[in-house]
């Protein structure tokens, strides 16, 4: 069983910063991509940023210039450095990964973490 564990959420004032972490563990052959999504109450889950195994990154327009995604292969960990946080960034942030499982033939499955709450408020 693959597990994604997020950490780093919390309460921060507008303009502040947080760093989210997500570590993947379990029966993993490889990880194609890892990223972050967020979901505010009564809203659809939306992509924040992702990074591929080759280091290609993509960001939602509403976080460009403020958030930075990075990854370390040793721990299969992805980070999201969030700066200049705004009230509208308040949401549950979910880690996502597309993982190759040790099966034959290979299977790629998307996994979700349980989420970490980010609240931006004065």
Shape: elongated
Helical residues, percent: under 10%
Number of helices: 0
Low-confidence stretches: none
The average pLDDT is 95
Tally the beta strands: 11
User: What letter string, H or E per element, gives the SSE order?
Assistant: EEEEEEEEEEE
Beta-sheet strand percentage?
over 45%
First-residue to last-residue Cα separation: 40 Å
Q: State the secondary-structure class.
A: mainly beta
Over the alpha carbons, how many angstroms does the gyration radius reach? 14 Å
Main β-sheet description: 7 strands, mixed
Report on this model:
- The structure is a single chain.
- This protein is mostly beta strands and 122 residues long.
- It contains no helices and eleven strands.
- The protein is elongated and about 50 Å long.
- The model has no long low-confidence stretch (mean pLDDT 95).
Layout of secondary structure:
Layout lengths: L2 E5 L2 E3 L5 E8 L4 E10 L6 E7 L4 E3 L7 E6 L4 E6 L8 E11 L5 E6 L3 E5 L2
Parallel strand pairs: 2-11
Antiparallel strand pairs: 1-3, 3-8, 4-5, 4-9, 5-6, 7-8, 9-10, 9-11
Could you name the key traits of this structure?
122 residues, mainly beta, four-stranded antiparallel sheet
Short description:
The protein has 122 residues and is an all-beta fold. The chain has strands at residues 3-7, 10-12, 18-25, 30-39, 46-52, 57-59, 67-72, 77-82, 91-101, 107-112, 116-120.
């Amino acid at each position: 069983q693959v597990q994604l564990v997020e950490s780093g959420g919390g309460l921060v004032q507008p303009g502040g910063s947080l760093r989210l972490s997500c570590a993947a563990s379990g029966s993993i052959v490889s990880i194609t991509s890892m990223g972050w999504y967020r979901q505010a109450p009564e809203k659809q889950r939306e992509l924040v940023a992702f990074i591929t195994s080759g280091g290609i990154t993509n960001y939602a327009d509403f976080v460009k210039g403020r958030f930075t995604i990075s990854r370390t292969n040793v721990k299969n960990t992805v980070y999201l450095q969030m700066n200049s946080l705004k009230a509208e960034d308040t949401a549950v942030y979910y880690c996502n990964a597309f993982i190759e499982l040790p099966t034959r033939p290979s299977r790629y499955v998307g996994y979700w973490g349980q989420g970490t709450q980010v609240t931006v408020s004065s």
